[in-house]
Amino acid sequence: MAEEATRFAERVRKQLGLPVEMVDERLTSWEAERLLEEQSGRVMHKASPHVSRKGHGQERKSAVAGKQTVDAMAAAVILKEYLAMRQSAEESI
């Protein structure tokens, strides 16, 4: 996936002439889950891998919504780190 993202970034640079900065996002989902757990006071992943079949459709919808929430928080973490890096670079000039 990283190679695909790199190729896409290069195409954007060449075809649109826009600057693209690559970001290492490997731990952002983990960090997002920890932040959400702190905010909500609940654990994102249950300790037991066994899921009851009763109400499975609702559990699946809840899991999808939870993933979207984690992804949104991870995106916010990436943006916050990027903006902090830019601000730090500007202050050192």
List the helices and strands and how they pair.
Elements: H1 2-16, H2 28-40, H3 56-91
Helix pairs in contact: 2-3
Describe the protein's architecture and organization.
The radius of gyration is 18 Å and the shape is flat. The chain has helices spanning 2-16, 28-40, 56-91. The chain has a domain at 25-43 and 56-93. With 93 residues, the protein is mostly helical. The longest helix has 36 residues, at 56-91. Helix 2 (28-40) crosses helix 3.
Number of helices: 3
Task: Indicate the structural class.
Answer: mainly alpha
Distance between the termini: 35 Å
Instruction: Give the overall shape.
Output: flat
* % residues in beta strands: under 5%
Round the mean pLDDT to the nearest integer and report it: 85
Following the backbone from N to C, one meets helices and strands in this order, namely: HHH
Summary, kept brief:
By secondary structure, the chain is mainly α. 69% of the residues lie in helices and 0% in strands.
